[in-house]
Every structure is written in C-alpha cells, then in structure tokens.
Amino acid sequence: MKIPVTGFMMESSDDNDSNHSHKLYITSWNGNPVHVHAFSGVTSIDDGHSRQYASWTAPAPTGVPHVHGYHTVTALSQGHTHVIQGTTGPAIALPGGGHYHLFEGFTTINGAHPHSHAYSGRTGNEVSGM
C-alpha cells in the first residue's frame, strides 16, 4: 500500500559544517494536512537531580484518529544527558477546538552513576505542520 506524502526539504546552509544535512518537512499525509504539538516538562528526581526537556512531536495527519512519535534530549547537567522518546496516547479533544495528547515513559539510562528519570505530561494544542 502506498500513501501519498507531500512536503519539502531544506538544505543546511552552514558552509563550515563538514556534515551535509537536510531537513524534511511533511505538509500532508494521505491527502490530510499534518500538524505537530509542543511538549515540555521536568523529569523525576533521580541520582539527586531532575532534567528539563522541550521539543516538538513528529507530524501526524489532521482530522483522523492518530498518535505522534516524539524524541528529544534532556538538558546537559552533571556531564550527561538522557534521551526521551516514545509515542503519545490518542488525541483528546479540547472544549474550544483542537486537541492534545498525553505522554509518559522513562529516559535512557546514563550518567557516572547509571540512572534514568520518569517523565509524563500533556502536549500543547495542535499547530499546523512546521
């Protein structure tokens, strides 16, 4: 099964960067426009500290039942970071229109004293694809 996807690609313009890269921006999925959500929070306290994180979900089609993937890296502290990644829950309608998603999980295990952090929260309202 083929799903039509539209979007555009932007090339990195940093001439001093030896790693050539592109960013792909998806604007529609199977004929539906896509949207994203901001998400942010503070993790649980483990090994004497917590972590802050903020990012955007992966795009998903608008107007149909869906979930979003998410991935970010926590702020650097005490010489290490943690990866946060997963899949949100289904869309939850907002009274004034739009929707949000719940998310939760555990970070990767990192640090001089290996540990992870729990995290949970809800995304912001939907935003047309970035």
From TrEMBL:
Organism classification: Bacteria, Bacillati, Bacillota, Bacilli, Bacillales
Identification of the protein by name: YmaF family protein
Protein species of origin: Paenibacillus arenilitoris
InterPro entries: YmaF
Superkingdom field: Bacteria
A Pfam entry, by short name: YmaF
